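User: Could you go from structure to sequence for me? I need the amino acid at each position, not a summary. C-alpha cells:
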C-alpha cells in the first residue's frame, strides 16, 4: 500500500485499491453508509497514522475524555469497545474503516434519539428581524460573545497550545458554564474543570490524525468541540451575526419578559454564549447563558431559551428570599428556612415547579400544547413526594425533584401550565406579581384555576399546598 500517494488520495484512488486488494465487499458497504466527502476524510486519516498502530490511541482518547468529565455519562454508547485492526495494509485499512464507519453510524443514530432537540446541522437561515420589540425603560442586558469568539479562533489554529487553551477555558463564559454544571447536583462525577476543557480545546484544534479521527467519529467528542471544529465557518458567521445584532437581541428578550412583571421592577444583567455538552441553557449568580452548539442557527429555539434563562436571572430580584439567605444564586430563592423540615422540602419542590415553569412559559410567550402531556407525570411525582413527606423519608426528595427537572422534565411543562392559567385568568403582569408573593402562592393560584378548568388534583396535594401557603404567609408577616 503506497501510503504517501494515498495521504491526499481521492475516492477513485481508494476505490481502485479496494478493487485490487479484494476488499470490494467492504468498499460497497462503506459507500452505502458514508457520503464521498466523509469517507475520504476517514480513509485519509487512517493512512496518515504514523505508525499505523496509533489507531489504538482512539481508545486512550475515549478513556481520557471520560476521566476529565467530558464523556457521555452513560447517555450515549461507548465508542471503542474492542481493539481495532491496525491499518498497516489494504486489508487492515478497509476493515478498520468499516469498523469505524459502523461506530459513527451508531453514534449518530443514538444521538438523534437521545438528544432530540440538538440541532445536528446549520440550516443556512438568516438572522431574524426583531425590531418590533422594545425593552422596558431602564432595563439593560449585556450580551457577551467574547468567550466563544476566542474559542472559535483557537479551534481554527492547529498550533493552539495547552497554555492557549487554558487561557480560553478560564474565560468567564466557560467558568460560569462549568459552575452551573457543578451546581446542578445531578451531573455525575467527574465534572469537567478548566484543565479538562483546555485538553478538549487543544485536541479539537489539532490536525493530528488521531484527533481528527476522534472528531470524525462523533460531533459530541471533546465536549461538543468536535461539532464546532467541523463547522467553524458557520459558527464564526453565527457569532458575528449575534455580535452585530446585540441591541435587537436585547430588546427582543427584555421586551418579551417585561410584559409579565410589575412595571416598577429594575433589571440590569448579563447574557453569555458558551459551549457545553448535554446542557443547552444555564444561569449562575453572575449571568444567564446558552451553549450555542445545541441551537446553531435555529433562532426560534435559541430565542426561547435565551428568554427563559434571562427570566431566571430576573427571578432572583422578583421572588422573596429568607432574610438569612445571602448571595444571588438560585438557592437563594428555592430554599426558605421554616420550622418544619418537611415544609422546607415542599417549599423547595414547589419553588422549582413555579420558577422553571414560569421561565418556560415566558420563554415561549404562549401556551405550548405539549405541556398538557406534563401534567400527569408531574402530578404523579408530586404524589410520590407527598408520600416521602408523610413517611418522613426526606432523603428521597432530592432524587424525586431531579426526576421532575432533569432533561426538561415534567415540572417544566406543568409549571408552564400553571403560569398560563394565571395569565389567562387575570393578565400577563399577574404572573410576576404572583411570583412576588411567593412560589407557594404561585402554585396555589395556578392549581386553583386549573381545577376550575377541569384538571383533577389529588385532594391531599391541595391540602399540602394550602397549608404551606399558610405557614409561609405567617412567617413572612412575622405572626
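Assistant: Here is the amino acid at each position, in order:
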Amino acid at each position: 500500500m503506497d501510503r504517501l500517494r494515498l495521504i491526499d488520495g481521492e475516492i477513485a484512488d481508494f476505490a481502485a485499491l479496494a478493487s485490487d486488494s479484494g476488499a470490494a465487499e467492504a468498499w460497497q458497504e462503506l459507500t452505502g453508509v458514508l457520503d464521498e466527502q466523509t469517507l475520504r476524510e476517514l480513509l485519509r486519516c487512517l493512512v496518515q497514522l504514523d505508525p499505523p498502530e496509533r489507531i489504538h490511541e482512539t481508545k486512550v482518547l475515549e478513556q481520557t475524555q471520560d476521566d476529565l468529565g467530558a464523556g457521555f455519562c452513560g447517555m450515549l454508547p461507548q465508542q471503542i469497545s474492542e481493539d481495532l485492526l491496525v491499518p498497516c495494509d489494504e486489508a487492515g485499512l478497509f476493515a478498520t474503516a468499516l469498523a469505524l464507519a459502523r461506530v459513527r453510524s451508531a453514534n449518530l443514530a443514538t444521538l438523534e434519539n437521545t438528544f432530540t432537540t440538538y440541532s445536528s446541522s446549520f440550516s443556512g437561515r438568516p438572522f431574524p428581524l426583531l425590531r418590533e420589540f422594545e425593552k422596558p425603560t431602564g432595563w439593560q442586558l449585556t450580551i457577551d460573545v467574547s468567550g466563544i469568539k476566542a474559542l472559535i479562533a483557537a479551534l481554527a489554529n492547529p498550533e493552539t497550545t495547552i497554555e492557549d487553551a487554558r487561557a480560553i477555558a478560564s474565560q468567564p463564559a466557560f467558568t460560569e458554564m462549568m459552575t452551573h454544571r457543578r451546581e446542578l447536583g445531578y451531573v455525575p462525577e467527574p465534572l469537567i474543570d478548566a484543565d479538562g476543557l483546555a485538553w478538549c480545546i487543544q485536541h479539537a484544534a489539532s490536525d493530528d490524525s488521531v484527533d481528527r479521527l476522534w472528531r470524525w467519529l462523533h460531533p459530541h467528542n471533546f465536549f461538543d468541540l468536535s461539532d464546532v471544529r467541523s463547522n467553524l465557518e458557520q459558527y464564526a458567521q453565527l457569532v458575528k451575526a449575534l455580535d452585530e445584532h446585540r441591541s435587537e437581541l436585547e430588546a427582543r428578550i427584555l421586551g418579551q419578559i417585561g410584559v409579565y412583571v410589575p412595571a416598577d421592577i429594575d433589571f440590569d444583567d448579563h447574557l453569555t454564549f458558551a459551549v457545553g455538552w448535554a446542557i443547552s441553557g444555564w444561569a449562575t449568580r453572575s449571568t444567564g447563558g446558552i451553549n450555542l452548539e445545541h441551537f446553531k442557527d435555529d433562532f426560534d429555539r435559541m430565542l426561547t431559551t435565551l428568554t427563559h434563562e434571562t427570566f431566571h436571572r430576573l427571578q432572583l430580584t422578583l421572588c422573596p428570599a429568607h432574610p438569612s439567605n445571602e448571595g444571588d444564586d438560585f438557592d437563594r430563592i428555592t430554599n426558605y428556612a421554616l420550622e418544619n423540615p418537611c415544609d422546607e422540602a415542599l417549599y423547595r419542590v414547589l419553588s422549582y415547579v413555579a420558577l422553571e415553569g414560569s421561565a418556560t412559559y415566558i420563554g415561549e410567550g404562549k401556551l405550548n400544547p405539549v405541556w398538557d402531556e406534563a401534567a400527569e407525570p408531574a402530578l404523579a411525582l408530586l404524589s410520590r413526594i407527598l408520600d416521602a413527606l408523610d413517611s418522613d423519608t426526606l432523603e428521597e426528595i432530592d432524587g424525586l425533584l431531579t426526576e421532575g427537572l432533569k432533561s426538561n422534565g415534567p415540572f417544566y411543562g406543568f409549571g408552564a401550565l400553571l403560569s398560563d392559567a394565571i395569565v389567562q385568568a387575570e393578565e400577563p403582569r399577574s404572573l410576576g406579581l404572583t411570583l412576588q408573593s411567593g412560589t407557594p402562592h404561585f402554585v396555589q393560584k395556578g392549581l386553583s384555576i386549573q381545577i376550575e378548568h377541569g384538571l383533577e388534583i389529588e385532594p391531599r396535594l391541595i391540602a399540602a399546598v394550602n397549608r404551606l401557603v399558610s405557614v409561609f404567609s405567617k412567617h413572612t408577616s412575622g405572626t
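One structural detail worth keeping in mind: The first strand starts at residue 140 and ends at 144.
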